[in-house]
Amino acid sequence: MTRWLRLTSAGAVSAAAILSIAAFGGARAPRTETEDSVARGRFLVLTHACGDCHGGGNDPAAKGFLAGMTLPQQEFRIGPCAAAPQDACFKTRPRNVTPDNQTGLGRFSERQIFNALRYGLRPGETPDVEITSMTPGQGNFPAHPKYLAVPMPWPSWRHMPDQDLWAIAAYLKRGLKPVSNKVEDSEGPPDFWASEYTPEKIGTYPAPAFPTVNEKR
Ligand code: HEC
């Protein structure tokens, strides 16, 4: 009890100190929620290698940062050709994720970007709605989901907390300048990768409780 009280009063002192600094103009104006969210989104984008595929690597000052594929070597070949080079492949292409209205994410809402990162749903082919179920056809989850092409790593990114995914969406939409770069659409199977994105292949969201058979306390 005493310890709790002591902590509380220390907290009160530092809050008062901050307030008085602000009052005397000694501190910068407090950051707004938007600025915090964009800054967090930038940090997450830089630490999750988005630019390695979407352009510019980990340098936000690089030309074409996040503007999507510009060179043939940024294209992926997914499918049977991996095992047998003469066989066919789907060519998939990292898209322009800057907020350009014609060629980037400008025409999509932050919720559509959130739904892309949490559920792997293509923003261009999935309505702008809040999704409350993972069962196709229920809770606004599309009956026939159109998933993002492999190898966009959304099955990993989906495990970030909501707030982090919203922060990434905020950064992409509000923290970047639009760059016009039309990326040719990815190729893919008629089921839009649904058979690649089953719980057997990518696990479940949320992840199974800790510890699983591979883990220990
Ligand atoms: C391994 C390569 C790779 C990495 C890393 C990657 N992406 Fe992607 N991403 C892709 C590909 C390929 C597509 C295109 C999918 C398609 O055409 O269906 C894509 C598509 C997207 C889309 C959908 C854009 C649209 O217009 O449909 C968003 C949003 C996106 N990525 C955001 C991100 C973010 C944010 C990160 C980092 C947290 C990231 N990506 C990391 C490969 C990658």
Pattern of helices and strands: HHHEEHHHH
- Runs with pLDDT <50, length 5+? 1-25
Helix percent reads 25-40%
Radius of gyration: 22 Å
Head-to-tail CA distance between termini? 31 Å
The strand count comes to: 2
Q: Globular, elongated, flat, extended or rod-shaped: what is the shape? A: globular
Strands in their spatial order, largest beta sheet: 1-2
Which structural category do the helix and sheet elements fall into? mainly alpha
Bound molecules: heme C
Q: How would a textbook summarize the main sheet? A: 2 strands, antiparallel
Number of domains: 1
Number of discrete helical segments:
7
Mean pLDDT: 89
Question: What fraction of residues sit in β-strands?
Answer: under 5%
Description of the structure:
- By secondary structure, this protein is an all-alpha fold.
- It has one domain.
- The protein is 34% helix and 3% strand.
- The protein contains seven helices and two strands; from the N terminus they run H-H-H-E-E-H-H-H-H.
- It has helices at residues 2-23, 33-47, 50-54, 110-119, 154-157, 162-174, 199-202, and strands at 76-78, 90-92.
- The chain has a two-stranded antiparallel sheet with strand order 1-2.
- It is globular, with a radius of gyration of 22 Å.
- Mean pLDDT is 89; it is low at 1-25.
- It binds heme C.
- Residues 45, 48-50, 52-54, 76, 92-95, 97, 105, 113, 116, 122-124, 148-149, 151-153, 157, 168, 186 line the site of heme C (HEC).
